[in-house]
Write a structure and sequence with these properties.
The chain is α/β, with parallel strands linked by helices and about 350 residues long. The chain has 2 domains: about 260 residues, 4-Layer Sandwich (Purple Acid Phosphatase, chain A, domain 2); about 60 residues. Helix 1 packs parallel to helix 2. The radius of gyration is 22 Å and the shape is elongated. A 6-stranded mixed β-sheet has the order 4-3-2-1-15-16. A 6-stranded mixed β-sheet has the order 5-6-7-12-14-13, with no helix packed on it. A 3-stranded parallel β-sheet has the order 17-18-19, with helices on one face. The protein is built from 6 helices and 19 strands. Helix content is about 15%, strand content about 25%.
Length: about 350
């Protein structure tokens, strides 16, 4: 049976904790983000999908050192040489514009730098991917016109995919399952084009599917978020990170839809809270921290927390210098909001 297969990932946030000239030499989290980015591309290279889609936030922020830009684009350029098209939606962290580079001139690298539609022919079917850069303050009544700018209404492809980096009504985030329902930048599901085979979006870091994958003609299309490829904060500590492999195929009536959706999990390091309580004093502080550290995996990302019972004088002894001395070099640590020393290490 004819089908079209896609690898879909997003929110790689490359450049996160990756200083070019670090003042302190310690383990950084930046390489973790690059490793998972490469794992996705390696999987696509080995399995040969028809195309690859990146749903936005390729980079950690808009201002990125040129060395990081070149590292990322060199990876994309090499992958594109394998003959597999890769499409990218600029996200909010890039301020909706990817840095310019000759690396992006490869014919197999397609960027949604403006509202547009890319057309392909796979398995004898006309396949279109329409998309636009992230719109951070998109009024609800503006979404239809933005969609129209892609040429959606004139597009008669057998399979139509909408690619974006937006928040859709019903998406959930965080340990408390916060659900987005209203807001100027939240797209209502009823406003999504009914003739879309699926909506593929980045921006929400938890992998999830909104709606029914068994969409029929003129139903609200399913919305697929692959989530981020790495944990960017402790709010994501329990979330599995990875990407989707999606296989599309026509029904007996000839209507294209999702035949198979597979989440492929990526390796991530554990995030652990180390809590200092009222039993900790100046005399046993170091022994307590050493004991707690011995109970967790040596490559963990540790967050220092404390409760109200901890003596403020003891809390002031908990410094970056102390933790670097007590923790193995394979660990990262950061301070919770209770401490006067914000940041990650």
């Amino acid at each position: 049976m004819k089908s079209v297969r896609m690898v879909f990932f997003a929110d790689t946030h490359l450049g996160f904790d990756y200083p070019i000239k670090p003042r302190i030499h310690r383990r950084r989290r930046g390489p973790d983000f690059f490793e998972n980015f490469r794992r996705v591309l390696d999987y696509a290279y080995e399995t040969r999908p028809d195309l690859v889609l990146h749903g936005g936030d390729l980079f950690f922020r808009a201002r990125i050192p040129q060395q990081i830009i070149d590292m990322v684009y060199a990876e994309l350029f090499e992958f594109a040489g394998a003959g597999i098209p890769i499409l990218i939606v600029p996200g909010n962290h890039e301020r909706s514009i990817l840095p310019v580079s000759l690396f992006l001139s490869h014919e197999n690298i397609k960027i949604f730098e403006s509202p547009k539609t890319y057309h392909f022919k796979f398995a004898g079917a006309n396949v279109s991917l329409s998309g636009f850069p992230c719109e951070r303050k998109i009024p609800r009544d503006h979404f239809p016109s933005l969609l129209n700018e892609t040429g959606w209404s004139k597009n008669k492809a057998h399979m139509k995919l909408l690619c974006m980096h937006q928040t859709v009504e019903g998406a959930q985030v965080g340990p408390a399952d916060f659900t987005f329902r209203r807001g100027k930048d939240i797209i209502r599901r009823v406003d999504l084009p009914q003739d879309a085979t699926a909506v593929l979006s980045g921006h929400i870091h938890r992998a999830q599917v909104l709606g029914d994958l068994r969409k029929r003609s003129y139903d609200i299309p399913p919305v697929i978020y692959p989530g981020s490829t790495e944990r960017t904060s402790f709010a994501e500590r329990e979330e599995k990170k990875g990407f989707y492999e999606i296989e599309f195929a026509p029904s007996k009536e000839g209507v294209w839809g999702i035949q198979r959706l597979k989440f492929i999990q990526l390796s991530t390091r554990p995030m652990v809270d180390l809590i200092l309580d009222g039993t900790v004093n100046a005399g046993n502080l170091e022994d307590f921290i050493r004991s707690e550290i011995s109970k967790i995996r040596v490559d963990s990302i540790v967050r220092l927390r404390c409760d109200n019972e901890l003596d403020p004088a003891v809390k002031s002894l908990v410094t970056s210098q102390l933790l670097r001395r007590l923790m193995p070099e394979t660990m990262n640590f950061q301070f919770g909001s209770e401490f006067r020393y914000p940041g990650s290490h």
